């Protein structure tokens, strides 16, 4: 037994130049998967860059000061004009949708994560179903319960967009709240702070950056929606409408209406409107990131 224990170990150590069974195969598989993922990432970024570049190339041919300060001409075949009424309408309807969906969505996510229970599980299941509901169905629902009684309006469009945004806000907020370390909650509760105050003063500020990002993704989704607005806001192409209780046009509606015509001038306005919509979403996203970085938690205080 002593001779066996005293015998030197001759097995090769990692990095000593010895050969391990299957080592070369594992390295090749690892290299292949790394290259495959890199290729997928490059392809995804390439498609995005191509779409943005094409939209920019087509939109810049027409986009100018007059496009941002004028309404479309009465005759769609005529050149000139702009989508000022659609820009204003998009801001109003999306603002209504944000005001309706964000408080409800954040509150629901807090209840799911911090309190839970059977009701939370049922509500989470319904939220998952709502994510997959086509937006045209959402528009039809709002048409049946609102438009039939109160007429087409920006408020109806905002309600429809709010229903589109709600499950996205809930899911993104829920995921951000789950990333907050449990130790922060326990430390606050150990000091005698109530659970509600802990959520308000510790959990939500810690997750604020991710919550804001999720909200902006939902806003970007809502600003690009057309189908629910066809059944709710309906559109008002020739006039600037500031009253949300009346028919209201949006950028997405104007892009759709001008793109399906056979007139080159209208299609040019549609490309400019698409570029304007992309720029608006980009500006909102950048603003949200800057706001999140300025929060006390993001600065590490």
Automatic annotation (TrEMBL):
- Please provide, alphabetically and separated by semicolons, the GO molecular function terms listed in this UniProt record: phosphate transmembrane transporter activity
GO cellular component, as recorded:
plasma membrane
Q: Which residues form the ABC transmembrane type-1 domain?
A: 87-288
Q: What is its main location?
A: membrane
Q: Where is the signal peptide?
A: none
SUPFAM superfamilies for this protein: MetI-like (SSF161098)
- What task does this protein carry out? Part of the binding-protein-dependent transport system for phosphate; probably responsible for the translocation of the substrate across the membrane.
User: What's the protein name?
Assistant: Phosphate transport system permease protein PstA
Instruction: Tell me the classification of the organism that encodes this protein.
Output: Bacteria, Bacillati, Actinomycetota, Actinomycetes, Mycobacteriales
């Amino acid at each position: 037994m002593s001779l066996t224990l005293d015998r030197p170990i001759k097995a090769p150590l990692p990095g000593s130049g010895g050969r391990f069974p299957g080592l070369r195969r594992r390295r090749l598989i690892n290299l292949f998967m790394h290259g495959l993922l890199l290729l997928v990432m490059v392809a995804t970024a390439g498609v995005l860059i191509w779409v943005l570049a094409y939209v920019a190339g087509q939109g810049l041919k027409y986009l100018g000061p007059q496009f941002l300060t004028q309404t479309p001409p009465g005759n769609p075949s005529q050149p000139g004009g702009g989508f000022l009424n659609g820009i204003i309408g998009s801001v109003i309807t999306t603002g209504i949708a944000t005001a309706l969906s964000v408080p409800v969505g954040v509150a629901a996510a807090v209840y799911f994560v911090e309190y839970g229970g059977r009701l939370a599980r049922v509500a989470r299941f319904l939220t998952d179903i709502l994510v997959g509901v086509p937006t045209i169905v959402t528009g039809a629902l709002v048409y049946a319960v609102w438009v039939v009684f109160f007429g087409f309006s920006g408020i109806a469009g905002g309600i429809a967009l709010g229903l589109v945004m709600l499950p996205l806000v809930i899911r993104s907020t829920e995921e951000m709240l789950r990333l907050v370390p449990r130790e922060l909650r326990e430390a606050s509760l150990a000091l005698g702070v109530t659970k509600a105050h802990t959520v308000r003063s510790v959990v939500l500020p810690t997750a604020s950056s991710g919550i804001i990002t999720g909200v902006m993704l939902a806003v970007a989704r809502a600003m690009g929606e057309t189908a629910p607005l066809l059944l709710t806001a309906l559109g008002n192409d020739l006039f600037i409408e500031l009253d949300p209780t009346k028919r209201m046009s949006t950028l997405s509606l104007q892009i759709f209406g001008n793109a399906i015509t056979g007139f080159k001038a209208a299609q040019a306005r549609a490309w400019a409107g698409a570029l304007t919509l992309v720029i608006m979403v980009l500006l909102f996203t950048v603003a949200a990131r800057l706001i999140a970085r300025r929060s006390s938690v993001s600065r590490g205080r």
